[in-house]
Amino acid sequence: MVDQLAGSRPPDAAGPGTAAGRRTGRARPSAAGPAGAGPLALFARLALPAAVLLWLLALPRTRTAHMGALGLVGALPGLYWAGLALLTAGFTAVLAERGTRRRWAPGYVLALIAFVHATPTLLYPELRYAWAWKHVMVVDAMLRHDGSVPDAGALDAYNQWPGFFQLNVLFLRATGLHSALGYAAWYPVLANVLLLGPLLLVLRTVTTDGRLVWGGVWIYYSASWVGQDYFSPQAFSYLLFLAVLALVLRRLSAGRRAAEGSGPEGSGPEGSGTAGKQGIRRWAARKRAAGEREAAPEGSAAGGARALTWTTDLPPHGGWRPLPFALVVVLIAAVVCSHQLTPLMLISALVMLALPRRNRRVVLPVLAAAVALTLAWDATVARPYLSKNLGDLVAALASPDNNALPGLQRLARPAEAQVFASWVDRGLTAAVLLLALAALVRHRWTRRTSLPLLLAAPVPLLLANSYGGEMVFRAYLFALPAAAMLAATVLVPTGAASAGAGPAGTVPAPAAPAGHAVAAPAAEAVRAPGPRTPGPARWALTLLALLGLLFGLVFGYYGKEAMNRFTPGEAAAVRYVAQTAPAGSRIVSVTADLPGGEARYDELGRLALSAGTPQDRLQLVRDPAAAVGAALADPTVTGPSYLVLTPAQTAECRLTGVLPADTVDRVRAVAAASPSLRVVFADGDSVVYQYSARTAGPGPTEGGGR
Fold it and tell me: 3-class SS at 607?
């Protein structure tokens, strides 16, 4: 298996490397005539604008101010769910259309991105999610300091991986904008739209069957519930991660195409045989002499490398040409300087891709560059952080069982609705992974592709480190492109003649004798005698499966919106402190769920009581007056302390159980009865108290009861 090219493809129709492919030069049209002539095609074209219209009508009817324990899931009106169901039905009709082109598929995918990711942006008056606010504050601080931020404290790690933030600083300077807050709300939409390009490139190196490619794309967006697409270094570096993989896989696909066009069967550009190298030289010489680009039709065995470009043009000895390799190195460097985890995920993926011997001429140079850049960065710029946390990193290696579990210490039971949503998320994750495993068992051709290698790539890091309790979610995120493509081969019917047939209705050639390399699948492919056409019942099952995936997505992505959504009053409360507090002051809150609580983090201290030690949090639950008094009267704080209480903190305690649901109300009662605290700002349920040591007695006292 490891001697097979990871970029090998399912058996498809004849391509340019075959006699039939050279005669026609393009895929044959469907025998049924032009695609899109019947009622199914008409429905596919009308469903998209109708679904978008329902979505637009649903937005002003959404009750965001009255979100319950399931966030937007319970607040969105029936028009939204009807539009989403209609959108899914229309996309299924696009897949079911006869013919090879899916011209409406991009529109449906973009509409799905809008449905899921643009909805909160259009509904909320303020930027969604506290971590997005934090990253905006980091960009503002680096813009203010024109580089690294001194006295960054707990946020000093951002000084050591500043690529994403410095890129935003450059953008702000070039555009004249004063803050990233103006566009950060649209970052989830932008990130997912940009992700579509490398995602398509990756999937098209596996198959050119349009149904499977677009089905895999749809499943990816339907199963990406982790929510790592907000304004963050992770979203930025994940995009670059997929771009690097796309270029590597496309290079492997182009090399295999060259081997199919000349030379003995089974000899490819990454092979060590002399005949294979001579075949590449002859093929490259013919291309240079012809001075033209040869495109592979959809459904051909030529892989994702349809037309040679400057990113796929092969050098005489295989491997890389300088310009595309330089592009890959630049992308890797951007990943390395932007995020701690993504370079390690990239290295793990490249190691897996290098296991097949025929891949190594392409993959090993990229792997070497990734390892060298990561080690160089970690040994220089990131050395302070790694030295400080080396003990924790080593300890994590000794507890792989704990690393694979999400970590969250709670002092109360979370809301029942959140428990249900958590099980839905787990069910969605398990369903996608089980479908991927079923594809590997059912379709033999998938085992000859890069998909199983990429699916397994995050496992070593899953066992090596907990990443703050989030490693299991990040591992799923990085495995999702491969898992989605594999799931598509199970859920999306292609009309193959048998379970072992490829997606274009061909059957593979017999296996080569022992000791001989296996030829490229399409070189020996024969047409299947009469492929089955999937009937309405089969497509109905596909529709139900796609709707089920979206059901799981909305629970995972929208389920915590009651704590992710901020009101203008909450943003104004934090903004008041950031604008008026003198240097040396400290912002105290019950949880860290504040919009912009890290403002001026180089000058203002920050304390979230829920982030304390287990003993400190137990003290807060048992005696909030004593816990709040100790936090506010800290003698190491040189300026006044501010206690900020907001509805989002109440929602976080109620939804997650990190603290009892009434904790914020009890702290509010303590503050209201304390003579050492005075209200300096109030807007609705958002209030700011100022504490000063000059006016303080023994500290706040609990009053007003529970």
Answer: strand
